[in-house]
Batch of 3 targets.
Target 1
Amino acid sequence: MKRIIFSFLTCLCLTSCQKTEESSNPKGAGPFLIAYNIFKRDSVNKDDWEVMVLDPETGESKNLTNHPDVAWTYLAHENKIYFISDRDTANRNFFLYEMNSDGSNVKKLSALRLEDSWMDLDPETNEMVVSGRLSPEIRYQLFLINLKDGKHRQLTSDTSIRFQDPVFSPDGKIIAFVKSPKQKIESVFPEIYRMDRNGGEMKQLTKFPVDDPAAKGYGYNAGALRWHPTENFISYATTRGSVSSIFGVNPDGSKTWKISLTDKDEVYHDWSPDGKWLTFDQYQDTVSKQYHLVLMNWETKESRILTDTLHRTQLAPAFLMKQ
């Protein structure tokens, strides 16, 4: 959600319901669903975000939350969707919830208040790593939440720093995250770091180019992290020039490279559990101001648009399995 949302909320308007042209379906688009987020135009509730689910094989989509809250999913696993919501509290006071892929069995998982940030799950331990807050002074710190009982354990304790968008390595031993100073410092940007599961051995992985035009403008320096499940690299969003793209970085920081193949803004993304598919949101143009979801075959790079124009803001896709 975060910064990109505010840039397009100012330009929302009514759109047509015409079907967007698509390329051929990538071969073998498998037995999975994609959860994602939309902004719902509502004359009563001005800040209404809903969680949707889409079947890439049929093109059918469904609103799962149907609630006048801010609901936003950052993560899905197997047939569970994890999302933040302010439904039981004040506007944008977020807590962690889960639901089934059909929208049933909505359940609050923890009393820890969360920041608006990426998160990740270690299925072996049933622990989730999140960015949370304990008080107005203790914010943007990393925590582990035990999903069995909702109890949390704090991993970081530097209140001068924002720790956001944490993600586990596939073996659960390492956590990558975005670290940035709360007070802006010249030539110091949000960067990707890694640490061990207990918060030790912190190491910087990225270094944003100071001479890039985006260094002085609006956009992502680093954010929206995912860890590829089979090829052992971290994908993330960063803005270079005037375009936000998906990049990759090795876990030791030795190499960074661009993953996005277009010159369109592509930020929020997810990898299928087998690593064979990449899905991401893509800003089409400044005329339509349309955000679509795209599905790409990681091996062939063949891709297609999944969504129609019924909703203009369609963001942050996450893979989950069909029930």
Target 2
Amino acid sequence: MNIKRSSGLLLHPTAIPNKLGIGDLGYDTYKFIDLLAQLKQSYWQILPLTIPEKGNSPYSPLSSFAGNPLLISPQILVEDNLLAPADLTSLIGYSDSIDYASLILERENLLRKAMANFSLQNQDFLDFSKNPWLDDYSLFISLYEKNNQQVWSQWPEEERNPSNSLKKQLKIKLASQIAYHKFVQYLFYKQWKSLKAYANSKGIQIIGDIPIYVSYNSADVWANKELFQLGSDYQAQFISGCPPDSFNEDGQIWENPLYDWSKNKESGYTWWIDRISYNLEICDVLRLDHFIGFTRYWSIPAKLYDAKAGEWKQGPGADFLHALQKAIPQLKLIAEDLGSLSPQVTQLKEQFNLPGMIVLHYALDDWEFANANLPHKSFIYTGTHDNNTSKGWWKDYAYNHDIIKSNFYKSLAQARENSDFIINEDSVAYDLIELAYASNCLVAIIPLQDMLNLDENYRMNRPGTAQGNWAIRIPQAYASTINQEKILGLISRYHR
């Protein structure tokens, strides 16, 4: 992966302000890309664009392939003559947070109107419908709706594990629903590809995300049961999580079903190759989430539901990455290697020449060590979607830790060649941005919340909490509140 010294912004599209209740792939997002270009950024890190299965999190999706219908721009549907301007009247009005429940119903009504004005014999649609993942997804989601959105393991036996002949019958029986879901995915794909092309034309690459695990209640598991550690009752035998550590004395349970890596290998890792190939079609670079799990993973017996009862199991390692590399010549991956790194993780990352990650919120505990040992090609962040905003981090954590404040001040003074300054709540976000830009990492990625100096109320996600996540909206006047002169000065000074 050929990368240059540069910078970018991190923001999920849903948070981009507009008057339609949720950020989407429409005109306001094109304006956001214009802002990226004005700020001389090279990357937009988007996080997953998938359909949340629960908790509004795209990291727990109903499919690893399908795009979220809520991201489809109604305004562009009007421009394409699939909706009338009057259809959008009830949508107009800015909201400070996302009301997912009402939006889902509202948008489905619009999308069904759009479908009534579209010919399913359109050649572009027919070509898109040949995507191999689309058949499984559209049948799964149609059955999911038929069964009142129950987890697939609670469906009638014949629908839990249908034979090929039954699948054909179900596709006939559910033809109109299946056609609707294929149409929705076509709209998402068409709008996203146009937006990505615009970003690329402005010199901006899109960084996507591949969560290592998938939801149990997903088309991925339902259609590929043999690739996961399931019992004869289709229930997960072992689930994901992590062992007890200094942050969590009981460990963590993530609940995702674990892969049967031997069966994945027997298949030639086909599902993984298809998944990453498709995501590289809609993104330029992919962050491989929880990279540590490809060397070893924590396996928790599902019946015990106790992270302490888990044990380490061997991951697929180099064999898996060799298969990806062979199948996908233009493989561009970032290894999300946060956490306790074993020598095996570092060795695997270096063997395949993958850039890793560093997060200043964590690294400043021992910045001298971290900075001295950083591979220069790493991607550095002030924080991620799972962190507090930098302003919130300073108030709630860093301000009470003298070692962090000392490391922060000394490293920034060294970068500035000047020690005559004070770090405080009002300056901390831009000070952290400067430290990221000054680092020897090739790429610095900044959450937009930090560039806007927003507080903890604009945090995207709080790991371990089920409610209130992924619902923030960035303030409407965000573009005018960025100190563009300062950012452009830092980019020039630190050669970003």
Target 3
Amino acid sequence: MSLHAGAALRRGIPLVLILLVGGVVWWKPWVPAPVTAVSLPCPDLVAGCSTRLGGETVRVRVEGGIKPLEPFQVWVEAAGVRKVEASFTMEGMDMGFNLYTLRAAGEGVFQARVTLPVCVTGRRDWIMNLDLDGSVLAVPFVTDL
């Protein structure tokens, strides 16, 4: 191989690597598609609400007043579900890490004692995101004063 051919090859290798890595990043076979949440408007979480999710009825309710920094119980009834996680967000606002794993409290019944973070702006409009074995249920609610 001539000296010029070796130099040209060395200059071409970075270009090939960039194209290869760019193609892999663009393709992203390992990134799952975003999960679309099913919305469950619930005007009275203490009384509870229900919906159908994945062919099964899911019921959500809470015990206690829902106020920031005051613990309350979240109950989810969902037959056939193995794992339930809850997190709390606000539309357009990062509320920090607040993920709760609900514990099994019987066949298809899960519960956890949770505490809402404080919103420094004073907003009271929350969304409880419930992850039920990969299916997400978004439950909007408003906290007590």
